[in-house]
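Reminder: ligand-aware prediction takes two inputs, not one.
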Amino acid sequence: MSPYPNLLSPLDLGFTTLRNRVLMGSMHTGLEDKAAHFPELAEYYAERARGGVGLIVTGGFAPNKTGWLLPLASKLTTSAEARQHRQLTAPVHEAGGKIALQVLHAGRYAYHPLSVSASSIKAPINPFRPRALTNHGVKQQINAFANCAALAREAGYDGVEIMGSEGYLINQFLAERTNKRTDAWGGTPEKRRRFAVEIVKRIREKAGDDFIIIYRLSMLDLVPGGQRWEDVVALAQEVESAGATIINTGIGWHEARVPTIVTSVPRAAFTWVTGKLKPHVGIPVVTSNRINMPQVAEEALSNGDADLVSMARPFLADPEWIRKAETGREDEINTCIACNQACLDHAFKRKLVSCMVNPRAGHETTLTLAPTRRSKHVAVVGAGPAGLSTATALAERGHSVELFEADDEIGGQFGIARKIPGKEEFAETIRYYRRRVAVTGVKLHLGTRVTAGDLTGFDEVVLATGVAPRVPSLPGIDHPKVLSYVDVVRHGKPVGERVAVIGAGGIGVDVSEFLTHTGSPALDLDAWMAEWGVTDPEQAAGGLTERRPEPSPRQVFLLQRKKSGIGSGLGKTSGWVHRAALKAKRVEQITGVTYERIDDDGLHITVDGKPRLLEVDTVVVCAGQEPVRDLADALRAAGLPVHLIGGADVAAELDAKRAIDQGTRLAATL
Ligand code: FAD
Ligand code: NAP
Ligand code: SF4
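Here is what comes back for the chain with flavin-adenine dinucleotide:
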């Protein structure tokens, strides 16, 4: 008996059957924008279909140029384009999967001057003011959606997903916030819904009865002036009557100031919203957001919140997610830890989307781990992210690998990261690698700090010895009140009620969150909702209420020498969340600091030429890191081929994305 009877059971839609209850949610990878990249995109989808995904939803394709997210972005408007799409649909079908095209009209989120919307109101996250559509213009947009769906059918897609959430055009028609019209398309909730409902109707007419129409419905807008719950329910019922096959859940507009998918959002944080809608409709509903492991997905289905689950990033992290769940190998799943570092942050920088824990994502045709023709005996020193990715990928290719780790546990700095409130998911990567080491047959030596002399007899040596905290030269740095982030987070050394944090990079910000957290576990859903002001949409339109964060148990000062904003180097999609969290905990952020000295009175600094004493009990140093690579010279002198990776190679601007990517790429070539 499968532990996931709901998740893995087929779903009969009447005219077609999905092989399980898993929908791979839409993600724009960057490969959609040019047909020249379709062969790579085809392999990316095919790998996920072979891995068992029931229904794949593509990245968004605009139904016309006004709907483009960016100039020359993906669109489907001609038969010639539809023919190109056959390259994508055929391999998915060969692998037994199904695929739907997402039709996305950006509306006022379009990053170009052609943008249109219900009313001419600029989005707070976009410099382009949209043109308000005329009555004729609205009808043209509806036709464009229907044509796009008909072309999708021509291209071999099993259906379409209509993007009706996240604050895109359809959502802009639905909410009073963005729809100030007084004609047939605005003025009352009924009239604001008409655009969405007409689109579904026209698509059903044009694409036929045996075509899946998923409507992605914004159940929680999370913006002021969002939809009331009764309007959300009415929309779902009208969309069903208009011919939708499935309703998918959308949570939060892009301009919302509530995080909806980053790692500090508790798992399955929004399935209750889908569960609240489900009794009001007769068609299957899909739940989504922060579902990343089979048990979480199964629970959402077995407790009756939904009929299907949507997961997007988990399939970047592991294309074999379903197969592993089916065969009782869930401990082998490479879990998406919701860091956004290589997926959404790349998308915002217009870089190809990939995955921090799986650098092959989006590079399936170029980064392959083919079996080696000549097996070598390889030593990998250091079991942080860099060493773990190298060792396991080398072993997968057939090399004989020994992995040496000074600590008594694998993980390196990830072992510290996972202790930060809201970063608990990082433990999953350590669990994944622990299992992967066993499965691939890497010989692991824990508690073994190697010297150059221990490494004779290997064909190759990979040094993944990582980094050590930098100790700034500052009078009083050896004062007993000074601790490193390792002392505080890893070793749990006691910290006073007034604390100064030196260094406001990623680690300084994390440590400040660690120090200001107390009370409820970080991933407690009620506490998280109170912190971010999320509530039942029946209580407040859009599900947004006043924030009530738990107070910090101590006063924290977060300092840096640069004048730039604190956390400005953090990822686009997570940096603002960290900044808002620090503000809520009243962390005093001071930039342009000169450190003078530390003594019994506290930390003496100068800011804008004025001396200031921070009367603190503890100073925590998070001043960056230095590479640990003292073995390299001795090994080279002994004539051994040495490869430096991760922090041991370059400590500046190191993150786990670079460490894992570099390790995997080295392993692919040895
Ligand atoms: P390390 O993780 O430093 O691993 C090196 C390993 O080598 C260690 O386990 C060490 O014990 C071992 N070693 C050293 N010398 C020897 C020897 N002679 N013999 C045997 N073993 C040896 N990165 C992100 O990308 N995103 C984040 O959100 C993030 N958050 C972080 C939060 C915190 C609090 C911290 C501390 C780090 C965070 N990082 C984050 C950084 C990330 O953890 C590092 O970039 C990454 O761990 C570097 O990997 P590495 O393998 O190069 O080195
Ligand atoms: P970092 O981002 O380089 O930050 C180091 C901080 O120390 C900076 O604020 C720097 O600012 C300060 N500093 C540097 N030298 C100093 C000195 N001699 N004296 C006093 N202050 C000094 O490094 P990190 O915070 O250690 O993080 C390491 C890596 O882990 C980062 O590159 C980051 O990518 C990764 N990480 C990422 C995340 C994430 O959420 N994505 C989270 C944690 C860590 P000033 O020079 O202006 O003072
Ligand atoms: Fe998940 Fe991070 Fe990979 Fe994105 S980069 S898929 S968030 S693990």
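The pocket of flavin-adenine dinucleotide (ligand 1) is lined by residues 339, 341, 381-387, 404-407, 412-414, 416-417, 420, 449-450, 464-467, 489, 506-507, 510, 628, 646-647, 654-657, 659 (CB under 6 Å). The mean pLDDT is 96. We will return to this case in the review session.
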